[in-house]
């Protein structure tokens, strides 16, 4: 999948020639897939790196299978969707409950720009299906833009305010579904961070889960982590990087991640819930930096839908920082981001 190749991690390579403490001076690397995306791990440890990276992969797979997947029957989200319309609702474990409450708050604070009940409209557009080969004329020809009536019909089955969270149960109206595609990889970063904190032998790590990247701890030489931000016009390159110490999560949402082009128009995968069409608020890429993975992922999607002005206000509320790339090439850093951002 094209997306997979577009996340560029700029982790400075440690020189093997600098002597002392050889064991932990060289990072271990791995690349896997999970959650429909690529997982890249870079870990500095004096322990068994291979085993650790397998544990991390397993944490992500379990998160998908037990909690977040809308396609796998084993997951809590699948069960909630399956029981949509059931009078008694679905009992929801505290772990998922806390996540849903956090997401609900971002929905409220973004006036519904982030809405995990948008799944029915996302499925109607079905951009993912076409995105793998987007750009080819043939692919564009087979893609059909839904008509307004169809979009409105799906929108009537969306809206986070129609979902009730009450006393440990979630009540999802019939015909609606939850889709955690906008937040899942950030949630995975939080899960991996929990794991890393329990590993005393890990000095530092960078874990890239599709569009969300976790940094943790330190490199043995004390230098900072560098997380690249993809150049939306040349996705094999990057326009700058974030220079980070310790724990952060960086999430990017861009119109180049999954899209199809037809008749010269790019239809991408981030839907504006107020219109049912791909968001068009003047941005082509949003990168959000936060201490919380779920929030960084949720906010990057919300900001993309909102546009730079409203997005700036939203990020301030969450003590998060943003890099917004506008369609005309203008790059906007929110207040505080200048401490982290280095352009190429
Ligand atoms: P983000 O901006 O973070 O999110 C965009 C995605 O969120 C859209 O694709 C859509 O699903 C949804 N969305 C669109 N608009 C909104 C909105 N306004 N509010 C809320 N949500 C919105 N992809 C596959 O191709 N195959 C898989 O098997 C697969 N499995 C997955 C399993 C899990 C548990 C999760 C969480 C995701 C899975 N995905 C899968 C999806 C994929 O990993 C990403 O979610 C997708 O690539 C979009 O991520 P992003 O970071 O580019 O965009
Ligand atoms: Mg997101």
Q: Count the helices. How many?
A: 12
Query: What is the general shape?
Result: globular
Uncertain residue segments: 1-23
Beta-strand content: 25-35%
Order of helices and strands: HEHEEHHEHHHHHEEHEEEEEEEEHHEEE
Number of strands: 17
**What Rg do the Cα atoms give?**
20 Å
**Going across the major beta sheet, what is the strand order?**
2-3-7-8-11-14-15-16
Quickly give the structural class.
Answer: alpha+beta
Say which molecules are bound, naming each kind only once.
flavin-adenine dinucleotide, magnesium ion
Termini separation: 26 Å
Residue share in helices? 25-40%
Biggest sheet, in brief? 8 strands, antiparallel
3D structure, described in words:
Strands 2-3-7-8-11-14-15-16 form an eight-stranded antiparallel β-sheet. A four-stranded antiparallel β-sheet has the order 1-9-10-17, with no helix packed on it. The protein has a three-stranded antiparallel β-sheet with strand order 4-6-5, with no helix packed on it. It contains twelve helices and 17 strands. It starts with a helix and ends with a strand. A hairpin with a 2-residue loop joins strand 9 and strand 10. 46% of the residues are buried. The chain is globular and about 60 Å long. By secondary structure, the chain is an alpha+beta fold. Bound molecules: flavin-adenine dinucleotide (FAD) and magnesium ion.
